[in-house]
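Running co-folding for FE2/S2 (inorganic) cluster.
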Amino acid sequence: MFDGKNKNLTAKSTVVTSAHNKQVRALCRLDEIPNGEARGFVVEVGASSQEIFIVRKDKIAFGYLNSCPHAHWPLEFIENQFMTLDKRHIQCVNHGARFEIETGRCLHGPCKGKSLNPFPIKLHKGWIMPAL
Ligand code: FES
């Protein structure tokens, strides 16, 4: 698991995928994200790009589009700051919505009951890959 060696990740990485020729690049290794933290990425699919973030909880990672269901703004002001201080929830800094890590469902805030849109990922030999 996280060994503390890879703390200098680029905050936002561009990852190119292609729905047509199936070329997919790994986002990062699971152990590069400290447990209970998240990392933002820009993922290009064909000619379009999407901002996403990946949250790690123990040995599992969850991917979501970086768009709050309240006002559809990015969740963070500071790069990679997607989590509450206690690391138990995803938080939108705009108006304080809190989301469940595993489901993306809003538990508290102006969009309570709505959910973050998932971004499909898979783990392959410790690497987090887009599952497009
Ligand atoms: S934009 Fe996220 S809570 Fe308002």
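Result summary
Confidence is low (pLDDT under 50) at residues 1-11, 13-20.
Residues 68, 70-71, 73, 92, 94-95, 97, 109-110 surround FE2/S2 (inorganic) cluster (CB under 6 Å).
Job closed.
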